[in-house]
Amino acid sequence: MAKEEKKSRIVDMTQGSPGRLILSFALPLMLGNVFQQLYTFVDTLVVGQALGVNALAALGASEWLTFLMFGSVQGLTQGFSVIISQKFGAGQEGELRRAVFQAVLLSAAAAILLTALGQAALSAVLAWMGTPEEIRGLALLYLRFIYAGIPAAILYNTAAAVLRAVGDSRTPLRAMTVSSVCNIVLDL
């Protein structure tokens, strides 16, 4: 039964109305992006209301480095989906498994590398960017927490890329929704 349930989430994007397929695949992606933006919105709202101007300025000073990290993670993991979707579409199950395995290995290596490099360089990069001294410590503290979460971000994005590559854009949406709700509850 569980196997049948899993199969029902996989969508053959070559069968059916292209417009309907694209819309049914894209809507969960768009909603996922909305939930992802809720992270920043709620964090900014809570920090501004509860912690004051310097903390809010530190959050703003950190935004570029946060965007750079998440953009790099998303770029890497979306690259995996190209190969995986090709193997899936061609029905090459062995090659598909190999591509997923390689994606997981590369993700693990990237998680270690990005976390280590990020943590080592954050202070220097904030200084290089000209972040004012009065907020640099707060920005560094915030970024250390964000960059400590790189492995989790890579895990989610790798799993989401694999699922989307086989036509399942709803499961990543569910995960992002739960994650966003947890973030909001923990922020408040």
UniProtKB/TrEMBL annotation:
MF (Gene Ontology): antiporter activity; xenobiotic transmembrane transporter activity
Main location group: membrane
GO CC annotation terms, alphabetical: plasma membrane
Protein topology in the membrane: Multi-pass membrane protein
Source organism of the structure: Candidatus Eisenbergiella intestinigallinarum
PANTHER family, A to Z: MULTIDRUG RESISTANCE PROTEIN YPNP-RELATED (PTHR43549)
Compartments (UniProt record): Cell membrane
The entry's keywords: Cell membrane, Membrane, Transmembrane, Transmembrane helix, Transport
Transmembrane portions of the chain: 21-39, 64-84, 104-129, 141-166
The keyword Chaperone belongs to this UniProt entry's keyword annotation: no
Protein name in UniProt: MATE family efflux transporter
